[in-house]
Amino acid sequence: MEILVCVKRVPDTSENEIELNGAGNDIDRDDLVYSVNEWDNYAVEEALQIVDKVGGSVTVISVGDDESEEVLRREMAMGADKGILLSDDAFENVDGRGIATILKAAVEKGNYDLIFTGAQADDGAAQVGGMLAAMLDVPFASLVNTIEVNGDKLKIGREIEGGNQEMYEISLPCVLSIQTGINEPRYVGIRGIRKVASVEIPTLGAADLGLDAAAVGASAARVQRTDYFLPEMGDGAEILEGSTEEIIDKLVELLKAKGGLK
Amino acid sequence: MAQVFAYILHKDGVVDDTALELAAAAKKIDAGATPNAIVVGAGDALDGVCNDMAASYGEVWKVANDALTYPDAEIVRKLLANILPADSIVLFAHEHLGMDLAPGLSVKLDAAFVPDVVDIEGADGSTLKLVRQEFGGAVSAHVTCDASQGAVMTIRPGVFAADESKSAGGQVVDKSADAGDFAATRKFLEIVEAEAGDVDITKSEVLVSCGRGIEDEENLEIAFDLAKAMGADVSCSRPIVDAKWLPKARQVGTSGQTVKPKVYLACGISGSFQHMGGIKGNPFIVAINKNAKAPIFQVADVGIVTDMLDFLPELTEKIEEL
Ligand SMILES: Cc1cc2nc3c(=O)[nH]c(=O)nc-3n(C[C@H](O)[C@H](O)[C@H](O)COP(=O)(O)OP(=O)(O)OC[C@H]3O[C@@H](n4cnc5c(N)ncnc54)[C@H](O)[C@@H]3O)c2cc1C
Fold first, then answer.
1. From atom 49 of ligand 1, which residue's Cα is the shortest distance away?
2. Is B219 on the interface with A (CB under 8 A)?
3. Which residues 134-193 of A have a C-beta within 8 angstroms of B?
4. Which domain holds residue A238?
5. B165 Cβ under 8 Å from any chain A Cβ
6. Do A160 and B146 count as a contact with CB atoms less than 8 A apart?
7. How far lies B179's CA from each of B61, B64, B68, B78, B278, in Å?
8. C-beta atoms of B140 and A141 within 8 A
9. Which residues of chain B neighbour A158 with C-beta distances below 8 Å?
10. How far is CA A121 from CA A10, A245, B226, in A?
11. Has residue A225 been placed in a domain?
12. What number is the ipTM of this complex?
């Protein structure tokens, strides 16, 4: 089974407090710590586990700048066989559809049976997998949280409301977007990263992919973010202040009054 | 302005809450226009759903077919691509069906796509001015969408107040014959119901809920100690279940349990909409979080900016002394 996993380098929300910059129109990008999108780690782990069972290879791919190489290397340290970086000045500020278009061109240069994306990334959009499948005209399922390989078909589970699961049979090739919790992604140590430090990662640009820069680039993006801002909020929470003891006393009184202590 | 269509979620003849929220969202795109609804399904209950929706939408496009008994997004996407007029604006709820169906539909319609819209500021010609959130709700973003070739959007459940006016006086239009070929590309097998857990948090009056801020599986003890002192149960956010530290039955949220406690202590939880979507009945929410800017403080009643790992044991001790 040849599996392609699409991954993204994102600001790590557990390492950073995402805040607005001084001008209030963008997030503060100084000293941001980046890592691989949480969902993508589960996707790579799932691909590795499938290949362990049925054979094949795992390729990780990312649309990004040079720095995205570091997340490709991290996923290769987990065990992915190959990495491909899709990078070009023309790819800057593309919209979700642009990303899917670029990935489609790369998919068509390979011979993949199965393509994974994370269910969503830092922008919470959850769009690239479904668009990519539609462009490739192959079946799609989102929020996948179990996969069982049966020959050229998969039995998959999709997460729906209330912890319930929707089960489908889906044929290959297909695109699946992977939900967190599907597995327990393996730990990557410094040793693992060092092992793949010098593996070459090919970079493909618009021309290599046979893409017209004007057709995929920012100018073609029909959806554009114009700025970041903090919305005006209602009253918000009453923040309890004082020494820990004072705070606890106030909280205990409130809990008593609201029926929080039995 | 293009025609606006809303895809109506319904189950066993009952229309989902989002149906009237989408009607409200549609009016924010174009206050003067009457949006249309699309209702697909099978069986006797379908007409009731369509008639309900005719009170709120101008035209209700009904597609009835036994193949639609269970709404498989892959099938529904195909039939929508067959019946929708070019350049339409199509709204879905941002939940599991919308996420499965809508991105691919935008490609098939060659329309723009905007996911998880939380506000609509209006339209300037065919450019829609929208608001989204990023980074788990830490910041919002203004987004423009060129809808000149149509647009598909998913709308976050619960952000638009349902349009209860029911004054559309609409009509049901049967489009079943126009739906064309919509053969399945995947085969629906069954729904596997969630396993019941050791406690039923949907019945709990008081919940001590832990998020990623608990940091380590061993630290869960401090939450259980506090819960014991308070006479509460322990629930959690999704990452705690993903890490297999607590069973799925204790997860609060859209993909977990819907709880209705009197008091909810959110400890080390950022306040994502998927988490908050599982908290109903307007409980008294106390947020304990070390980040003063965490979105949870916008929705909580009372907030404490502190390290929960130090604070919870002290609170437990005090309550035990009472
Ligand atoms: C389709 C879908 C369905 C989902 N369904 C659900 C669902 O049902 N339920 C759910 O919960 N999530 C769900 N999620 C995930 C959701 O989007 C969030 O990722 C998740 O809720 C975040 O959990 P959290 O708040 O615990 O973690 P984070 O967002 O990482 O927040 C951790 C918080 O802890 C604080 N913190 C860290 N350390 C400490 C400390 N020592 N003391 C005090 N505070 C601390 C941080 O400041 C931060 O605010 C779903 C996602 C998707 C895509």
1. B270
2. no
3. 134-135, 138-143, 155, 157-171, 174, 180-181, 184
4. 233-262
5. no
6. no
7. 11, 9, 12, 9, 36
8. no
9. 96, 100
10. 8, 40, 34
11. no
12. 0.96
pLDDT per residue rounded down to tens, chain A (262 residues) = 999 999 999 999 888 888 899 888 899 988 899 999 999 999 999 999 999 999 999 999 999 999 999 999 999 999 999 999 999 999 999 999 999 999 999 999 999 999 999 999 999 999 999 999 999 999 999 999 999 999 999 999 999 999 999 999 999 999 999 999 999 999 998 899 999 999 999 999 999 999 998 888 888 999 999 999 987 777 789 999 999 999 999 999 999 999 999 7
Measuring CA to CA, which residue among B288, B280, B293, B286 is closest to residue B307?
Answer: B288
What CATH superfamily classification does B201-321 receive? TPP-binding domain (3.40.50.1220)
Where helices occur in A168-243 by DSSP H, the ranges are 190-195, 213-216
Tell me how many domains chain A contains. Answer: 2
Do A140 and A241 lie in one domain? The reply is: no
Distance CA A105, CA B207 (A): 50
DSSP, collapsed to helix, strand or coil, labels residue B197 as coil
Residue A85 lies in a domain: yes
The pLDDT tens digits of the residues spanning B54-104 come to 999 999 999 999 999 999 999 999 999 999 999 999 999 999 999 999 999
CA distance B278 to B282: 11
Q: Cα A251 to the chain's mean position, in Å? A: 39
Of B140, B149, B255, the CB nearest to A231: B140
Whether residues A83 and A142 share a domain: the answer is yes
Handedness of CA A16, B158, B115, B118 (dihedral sign): negative
- Quick check: B255 and A161 CB within 8 A? yes
B4-178 domain in CATH 3.40.50.620?
yes
CA A178 to centroid of ligand 1, rounded, Å: 18
